[in-house]
Amino acid sequence: MKPVTHVSGRAYPWGAKNIDTDVIIPAHWLKTVTREGLGKGAFETVRAESGNIFDDPRYAGAPVLIAGDNFGCGSSREHAAWALADMGISAVIAPSFSDIFSGNAFKNGIVTVVLPQDAIDRLIEVAKTDAVSIDLETMTVTTPFQDRFPFALDPFRRQCLMEGLDEIGLTLARDTAISGYEAGLAESRPWMAGERFHASA
């Protein structure tokens, strides 16, 4: 997973509430065995409408999505986070998120920022013309107009995002301790080490 300390750029000033995972990525896209290409299916029903925000050239490649309350509700499909990442979104700002979506986003390196509705309203206005910045070091969302909105993030999630550690990375970071434990176990309880221990003995 790529480390994330700062996300800055144009943002989709959407603000829609109660967007479920079926809107983020429709069910017929779940047949894929790879994460690549899911960005094409992201918000498919919204994109079917003319003049939709996701096909507006002003926001092409925007790394931030500003959404409404209860973003990511519905099913637990991790494809929703995969689709957002594949379309280039690195952070979503909303008043609240579904717990499952928030967890899936975190595991895929997407920052979920919770801010009150008045801050969301202000950011939507700014995003129509200017960039928005999210800084995990200072835990703030800022704009070119001196707006500064502090946010909270679970310390463990923040550390993992900033260091680029997913579940595999966290395990590999403890490789020395794990190997030492296994070696000690093989010495003290050889019957638990199985064929590998007996072959090397």
3D architecture notes:
Helices cover 36% and strands 14% of the residues. The chain is built from 9 helices and 8 strands. β7 and β8 (148-150) form a beta hairpin. The longest helix has 14 residues, at 175-188. 29% of the residues are buried.
Distinctive features:
globular; four-stranded parallel β-sheet; 201 residues; 9 helices; alpha/beta
**Separation, N- and C-terminal Cα atoms:** 38 Å
Helix segment count?
9
SSE pattern, N- to C-terminal: EEHHEHEHEHEEEHHHH
Q: Helical amount among residues, as a percent range?
A: 25-40%
- Number of E-type strands: 8
Mean pLDDT: 91
Sheet with the most strands: spatial strand order: 1-6-7-8
Largest sheet: 4 strands, antiparallel
Which geometry do the CA atoms define?
Answer: globular
Work out the oligomeric state of the chains in this entry: single chain
Percentage of residues in strands: 5-15%
Cα gyration radius (Å): 21 Å
Poorly predicted regions are: none
Overall structural class, as computed from helix and strand content, comes to alpha/beta
Could you give a short description of this structure?
Helix content is 36%, strand content 14%. The chain is built from nine helices and eight strands. Helix 3 links the parallel strand 3 (64-66) and strand 4.
SSE topology:
Blueprint: E1 6-9, E2 11-13, H1 21-24, H2 44-47, E3 64-66, H3 79-86, E4 91-94, H4 99-107, E5 111-114, H5 117-127, E6 132-135, E7 140-142, E8 148-150, H6 155-163, H7 167-172, H8 175-188, H9 194-200
Parallel strand pairs: 2-3, 3-4, 4-5
Antiparallel strand pairs: 1-6, 6-7, 7-8
